[in-house]
From TrEMBL:
Belongs to the ERG2 family. This is C-8 sterol isomerase. GO terms for biological process: ergosterol biosynthetic process. InterPro entries: ERG2_sigma1_rcpt-like. It comes from the Eukaryota. Pathway: Steroid metabolism; ergosterol biosynthesis.
Length: 237
């Protein structure tokens, strides 16, 4: 009996120090990951090509030139961007027939991806039917420039609705969440800057949990990957 007990104690001592070592290693790894992430977060700005204010001015001019005409607004925007930004600075997708359906946060619409990189994306998003849902919790700043129709938003504890009209921009800072509605027909130019890959699960999760629309999923992934690679090839992260 006695010898058995002391044997157990001897076996427990190395266990305790092994556990301590394991947790010390985990703490060091967590610290290194934290330091790396916060460093990357501080330097991400150097890869931004677009400027939210310039994009807002462009959206306003497009709305003024072609009020209520999304079919004319989109080519106006794309031709301005291709004239303004050299192909050596940013890769743009000029094929405005490349629309994909998207479900996220309970809302549904379609998007045309104009630009996609690791730190920025620019899309046209909307639906002629209206839709409503959760903005999602994001690691990027989001600028929603209304082109036609209206976007409404609910930001508790403020109980009055926010209303964004064509030419106005709805800025959703990263980490902030709201309920939103694309009221009746609404299209917007959405610009996001930050860590874009971390937003993808929100944009794609509904495929697996709800829509099973692998066709749209395939094209979304294909276009996003293609545009990311085109940007990486010119050094735009
Ligand atoms: C693009 O739009 C901006 C903002 O409206 C404007 O200042 C600029 O002159 C336009 N560029 C071209 C090439 O049309
Ligand atoms: C543009 O996109 C459409 C839809 O995906 C496709 O059918 C067409 O071939 C594309 N055009 C070019 C020039 O790539």
């Amino acid at each position: 009996m006695t010898s058995k007990k002391s044997g157990n104690k001897a076996a427990q001592a190395p266990d305790a120090s092994a556990t301590l070592r394991k947790w010390a290693t985990r703490a060091v790894i967590a610290f290194v990951v934290y330091v790396t992430c916060s460093f990357l977060d501080r330097i991400k700005d150097r890869w931004y090509v677009f400027d939210p204010k310039a994009l807002h001015a462009l959206a306003q001019d497009a709305v003024k030139a072609h009020p209520d005409d999304i079919n004319a607004i989109i080519p106006y925007i794309v031709s301005n961007l291709t004239a303004e930004y050299p192909a050596s600075a940013i890769a743009l997708n000029t094929n405005s027939s490349e629309w994909v359906l998207n479900n996220a946060g309970g809302a549904m619409g379609a998007m045309y991806i104009i630009h996609a990189s690791i730190t920025e994306y620019l899309i046209i998003f909307g639906t002629p039917l209206g839709t409503e849902g959760h903005t999602g919790m994001h690691t990027a700043d989001d600028y929603f420039n209304i082109l036609v129709g209206e976007q409404w938003a609910f930001d508790p504890p403020k109980l009055e609705m926010e209303r964004y009209r064509p030419g106005e921009v709805h800025h959703l800072p990263r980490g902030h969440v709201k309920q939103y509605k694309m009221h009746e027909g609404c299209f917007a130019m959405e610009y996001a800057r930050g860590w874009i890959p971390l937003m993808l699960p929100f944009g794609l999760a509904d495929v697996f949990s709800s829509t099973l629309d692998y066709w749209s999923f395939y094209h979304t992934v294909r276009i996003t990957a293609r545009e990311n690679i085109r940007n990486l090839l010119i050094g735009k992260i």
